C-alpha cells in the first residue's frame, strides 16, 4: 500500500489547538500540494502525517536535518542505513564501497551537484543543502514522499528541475508549498489549510491560481 | 547594583572568605623566605639540564603514565557516557571523580605497591568519571533531528555512528586533548607519592637544595605542555597510546597477598576487626569524627572559600593582561607568558614550592590555588573580551575596564568560578598531604600510621564533601542562569 487514510489528526501548542481535528485520505498516485499562508499549520500537519506513515515515507523536513560534520555522500547514504548491517555502515563511514558511491553520485548528478560528493555539508550554500536533503529522500526511495517546502532555497530553473524529479520518482506525495504556480504545475491535488482546517480540497485541473489566493 | 543577584552572590562569598580569614592560619614561618625565593628564581633562570639522566627518564615516565591513564579513562568514560542517563551510573561516576588522583594513588599503593598499575589506575579511574559526564553532555547537545529522519529499523550502532558522533567529533576531540594536558599534570604530581614521574624528581631536587635541577624540570614541563599541539597529532596518537605502556617502567612486582589483606583486614574498621562488634564501632567513629574528620572538614572549607575568592580577585586582575582592549604588545606577550605558566603548573607543585620557601601555613596553599585557577579563568575571560566590539568612542583605561569590560564578562566569570569551586575543594583537600591541616593531612597521617580503616572513612568523607560542593555550585549556576563550557 502506498496511499494512506488518516483520521483524527490534531495538534495543540501551549494548550491552543493549531491543527484539526481533520482527516486526510491520499490514494496511490496522488500528488498532493499543501498550500496556505505561513502559520496556517502546514509544517505541523506534515509532522503529524510523518508520525503516522513513518515506515512508508521519504521525508524532506523544512530544517533539512543534515549531519553538518559529514560529507554529502554520507548524508545521502543515511537514507538507506536500515538496509545494511552495522559493520557495513561502519566501514562505509570510513571508506565507502564503490557501488554505493556510484548510486549516490547518480542521484546528485540528477540534482546538478555531483562534484560536491565529498564536501562537508556544513560548507554548502542553503540551496545546495536543500538538494542534499532531497537527494537523501530520493535515495531512501520510499513509496510516499513527504516534503516540507523542498524548493524554498532554490532558484527558478533548479526549482523546476527538482519538482520534476520528485514527480517522476515518487508515485504518491504530499508536498507543502508556498508557491501556488508550482503547486498547480506539479501536483494533481491541492489541499488548502486555513486556521488548522482543510479549507480547500480540489484536483488541480479545476483550479486557477486566483482560487487559491483567497487562502492567503 | 546591590539588587543584582550576581553582585549579591559575589558579596556573600567575599564576606564568607573574609570571615574565613579570621580563622585561617595565614603566616610566613620560614626564617628567611625571600632569600629562599630568590635562590629558587635563580635556579629557574640557571637551569641545569644535565645533572643526572634521571630527569629525562622522569619526563618519559610522566608522558607514558599520562597517555595510558587518559586513554584508559577516555575509553571507559565513553562507554559509561552511553549509559550515563541511568541514576546508578551517574552516582558511581560522581563518586569516582570526587576522589583526587593522589588519593587513588595512595589507596592503590597499599596493595599494588610501586607497580605501574598504581599510577595508571590513579589517573584512569577519576578521569573515567569526568569523561563520562562531559562526553554525555556533549553527546546530548548533538542535533536530534537527523536521528529522527533515519529510516525505521536502522540499527542502533549505525544510527549512533552516523547521527551523533560526527556532530560531536570536534568537541569530543578538543575535550580529550584538554584532558590529556590535565593528565600530564596529574601524572607529574603522582611523583610526590613515590611514582617515578617528575614530582618525584622535583621533590628530591628540592630536598637537596638543587634549585637549578628543579628549575630545569619546571622549564621542561612547560615546554612539554606548550608544545603539545606540535607533538600530539591525530596520526601519531595510536603510536603513543600503543607505545606508552612499554615506557611505564618496571616498578616493583605486585604482592597479591597484600591485596587480600587490604580488603579483608586493613580497611575493616578496627573495632570490628578486633571483635568488639558494633558496640566498639560507635566510640571509634566518634573519635575519628571529632579528632580528625571535623577539623579536616572545617579547615578544608575555610581554605576552599578563601582560595575561591582569591582566585576570583586574581582573575579580574589578570584578564586585562591578555585583552586586546588595552595597549601594548609587550604587556600582552608577558601577560600570556605569565598566564601560561600559572595555569600549566599544577596547584600541588606550586603549593609545594611555596611551602618549601615560606614554611607551613595556609598561605602557600591559597596563593598556589589562586595562581593556578586564576591563570586558567583569566586566560578564558581575557580571550572572551577579545571578541567584544566596543563603540569607537568607548572610554579608555580603568573606565574601560570597569564600565565596559567587567560588566560584560562578569556572568561568565562567575560561571567559570563556580564551575571550578569543586575542583578547588578537591585540590584543597589533597594539599593536606603537604602538611596543611585539611582532610588530606588526616588521610595521609592515617596511612602513615597504617590505619587504613580510618583513611578510607576520611577519603569517603572528602568525596561526599566534593559531591556536595559540586551540587551546590550547579544549583547556584542554575539559580543565576550562568552557563559554561565543560573545557575549563
From TrEMBL, chain A:
Which InterPro entries does UniProt cross-reference here? Answer: AAA+_ATPase, ABC_transporter-like_ATP-bd, ABC_transporter-like_CS, MetN_ABC_transporter-like, P-loop_NTPase
Which PANTHER family has this protein been placed in?
AMINO ACID IMPORT ATP-BINDING PROTEIN, PHOSPHONATES IMPORT ATP-BINDING PROTEIN PHNC
Query: Membrane topology for this entry?
Result: Peripheral membrane protein
Could you tell me which residue ranges the ABC transporter domain spans? Answer: 4-216
Q: Which UniProt keywords apply?
A: ATP-binding, Cell inner membrane, Cell membrane, Membrane, Nucleotide-binding, Translocase, Transport
Q: What is this protein called?
A: ATP-binding cassette domain-containing protein
Record's keyword annotation contains ATP-binding: yes
Location of the protein in the cell: Cell inner membrane
Q: What organism is listed for this UniProt entry? A: Marinobacter metalliresistant
Cite the PROSITE patterns for this sequence: ABC_TRANSPORTER_1, ABC_TRANSPORTER_2
Source superkingdom = Bacteria
The family database entries (SUPFAM superfamilies) matched by this protein are listed as: P-loop containing nucleoside triphosphate hydrolases
